[in-house]
Each structure stands twice: as C-alpha cells, then as structure tokens.
Design a protein that fits this description.
Distance between the termini: 45 Å
Radius of gyration: 21 Å
Shape: globular
Number of helices: 14
CATH topology of the largest domain: Aspartate Aminotransferase, domain 2
Number of strands: 14
Number of domains: 2
Bound molecules: pyridoxal-5'-phosphate
CATH architecture of the largest domain: 3-Layer(aba) Sandwich
Strand order of the largest sheet: 2-8-7-6-5-3-4
Length: about 400
C-alpha cells in the first residue's frame, strides 16, 4: 500500500498531456502541441561550451550541497543587479530545478495543518507540493477582470491563525499576467502584519513584453525581505529545462533547513551544469532579447487568432509564453459522442478530434479556460488555431 501522503497527489497535468501528445506523435499522428511548458529555443552555445569545458576539466565530482561558491556568487550578483536584492552565500541554495527548490522550501516550512494561500489559476505543482508536505492549500479565485491577480482584500479574507505562507508566481504560468509594485505592496503589508512567508516564484521574470518591468516583492523593504523566499532558475530565461538547475534565496534559517533536506535527499545539483549556469548569468545576455522578440510576435499572432474564433475570448498576456483563453461559451455543447462539460473534456476533444494538445484550465484551478503555450513555431500556431476553429465550429447545443 502506498502512503496516505502519496495517495493525496496526482501526476503533473502539463507533463502528462505532453507525454500523451508525444505518444500519439510516435504512433504517426500529426499532433500539434501547445501543451509544453518550455522554450523551443536551444540552450545558448556559450552556456553549452562552459559545460563541455567543465567536463573536459574533470569537474565531475560531488560539489557543496547548496551549490558551488562561484555559482552562488553569480546568483548573488544577479539578484543585486536585476532585483536590487542583497544576499549572503548562506541565504542561497541551488537545487535540481526551480521545482525542486520549491519542493525543498515546502519541506522546510510546512507542518501538519499549516495553511498555504495559493491564488488560482496556479501553477500545477503548488497545491500538490503543499499536500505532499502535510499542509493545506487554500485557494483564492481570481478573474479576468483583474488580470487573474489576487487582491490584498481577497488574500486577507483567507488568512487564519494557521496560515503559514502565500505562494505568488509572477509573471504567471498559466495566465501570463504579473503583479506590479502596487499590488505587491498591499500583499507585503499583509504578510508582515500576519507574519507569513511569501514564496515568490519569479522564474518568468525575464519574459515580459512592452517594457513591463519586473519587481520582486522581496525588494520592497527589509521587513518583507525577511519573510520572502525568492525562487528562480535557468530553465525559462536560458532555455535550460533539461539541465535541471534552479535556486532559492531567503532567510538564512530557512535556507539552512533547505540545505539539510537537500543533503539527505539529492545532495548537490549536477557539477558541470553549475559551471554552465555561471556562464549563463555572467556571459552575454543577448539571447534573452532575441527569444523575447520572437515570443512577442507569436503572442500577438496567437491571441488575435484566438479572438477571431467564434465563442473564444482571450485577453493579451503581458509575460511568460502562455495564452489563457476563455472557452466558457462551449461548456454544455457537443457533437457525436462528445459532450463538453468543462475544460478537461475540451482538451480531450481537441486532442482526439483536432490533434491539438493543450492543457485544461481545471489543471490550474480555473474551469472554463485552456492554456496554450506559444513556445512553438508560427507555422504550428497558424495550423493549430485553424484546427481549433474548425473543431469548435462542429460543437452545438
Ligand atoms: C517551469 C516552471 C518552474 C520550474 O522550473 P524548473 O527550474 O525547470 O524546475 C517553476 N515555476 C513555474 C511557474 C514554472 O512555469
């Protein structure tokens, strides 16, 4: 019998839909996937070269648990330069991906019955990571009218004596919207007043369009910094998803616990990947701008294509690489054997009948929406939206 804990969670919906799409492709079906959560760009050559050099130099052994000092220093410099944040080495821990950093932090912070506030739509892993660590996720519903952002008032209503933390993700996966300084100030004030931690997942920080500027909640003032764990990594900004490297920066006592947990589970992150990450942070940054310009074109193309489909509406995201269209008008429709009761039926229908893979909003706690990643070619965006349009036109009441 598996543990009660393991029984509480489900596999990551985004990863499982993507693998189903890959399976269909392997069987020869021409599937277009909007399900992936990773850049379709290759890791920059200078970063790869740094890993190759590390290998050739024999940098192939265990490293310090929390990451090599050289990488910690590069991260500290990055946080200073980009986010106006000052950290010491003992306030930074490098892990095997930002997802792993988030997991370690969950292990370090939550005790049984602790409540953790998670605004919805949320990234798929937050609730399950809370559950795996005996905490209780407490959701806040948000709406399109407020760009899917949680207001301080809405957060305030959910705070109880058992609330331990709030998880924020900005720019957001799945919505593409971000918290500005004003929103963050209100949330920071609440966190300080109620002595809550803020887990601030800023992995899409570099992917913001139209000159929107990223502000880290930790940078607002020393009081909120003391309660914030900043999460970031290399997967999205440097197209390094397969390298499995991310980091957390926060109060020394929390980071010490994170390091202890890591020392008893995965030990250190991969040695030569850490050398590559130093190059990612310290080398030329032009790659990001090029990728961003391409994503920007696709963003506009996809969103206008979606809005041209009868019954679909999509507000223009301001960051990350996802569109989050509203498909509520199709709930309750059907054709043949298909009855669309919600976003999950919609995703299944589009996958099987139109050979288009995307993630249902239900996976993110937002029924009536679907998430489409535009980290794919213009050609796929064109063909995919036209398939969706055709498939939806067959649905009726
Ligand atoms: C991709 C992603 C992560 C995890 O990134 P890794 O560093 O590859 O583990 C964390 N948070 C969000 C919101 C993401 O989309």
């Amino acid at each position: 019998m598996i543990s009660e804990r393991a029984g509480k969670i489900k596999p990551s919906a985004t990863l499982s839909i993507d693998s189903k799409a890959k399976e269909m492709k392997a069987m020869g079906v021409d599937v277009i996937s909007f399900a992936v959560g990773e850049p379709d760009f290759d890791t920059p050559d200078n970063v790869k070269a740094a890993a190759v050099k590390a290998l050739n130099d024999g940098f192939t052994k265990y490293t310090p648990v929390g990451g090599i000092p050289q990488l910690k220093d590069a991260i500290i410099e990055k946080l200073r330069r980009d986010n106006s944040l000052e950290y010491m080495r003992d306030e930074v821990v490098v892990s095997c991906g930002a997802k792993h950093s988030l997991y370690n932090v969950a292990q370090a912070l939550y005790s049984p019955q602790d409540e953790v506030i998670v605004p919805a739509p949320y990234w798929v892993s937050y609730p399950d990571q809370v559950l795996l660590n005996d905490g209780i996720p407490v959701f806040i519903e948000t709406g399109e009218d407020n760009k899917f952002l949680a207001t301080p008032e809405a957060i305030s209503e959910k705070i109880t004596s058992r609330t331990k933390a709030i998880i924020l993700n900005y720019p957001s996966n799945p919505t593409g919207f971000t918290y500005g300084r004003n929103n963050l100030e209100g949330i920071a004030e609440l966190a300080v007043k109620h002595n809550l931690y803020v887990i601030s997942d800023e992995i899409y920080e570099k992917l913001l369009y139209n000159g929107v500027k990223h502000v880290s909640i930790a940078s607002l003032d020393p009081e909120i910094k003391k309660r914030t764990v900043v999460i970031n990594g290399f997967s999205k900004a440097y197209a390094m998803t397969g390298w499995r490297l991310g980091y957390a920066a926060g109060p020394a006592d929390v980071m010490k616990a994170v390091e202890n947990i890591q020392s008893q589970s995965t030990s250190n992150p991969t040695s030569f990947a850490q050398k590559a990450a130093v190059e990612a942070l310290e080398g030329p940054q032009e790659f990001i701008g090029r990728m961003l310009a391409e994503f920007d074109k696709r963003r506009k193309f996809l969103v206008s294509g979606l809005n041209a489909i009868d019954g679909v509406s999509c507000i223009m995201p301001e960051g990350a690489f996802y569109a989050f269209p509203n498909v509520k008008k199709y709930v309750g429709t059907g054709t043949g054997k298909w009855r669309i009761q919600g976003s999950s039926d919609m995703a299944m229908y589009l996958l099987e009948e139109a050979h288009v893979a995307l993630v249902p909003g239900s996976a993110f706690g937002a029924e009536g929406y679907i998430r489409m990643s535009y980290a794919t070619s213009m050609e796929n965006l064109r063909e995919g939206t036209s398939r969706i349009k055709e498939a939806l036109s067959k649905l009726s009441r």
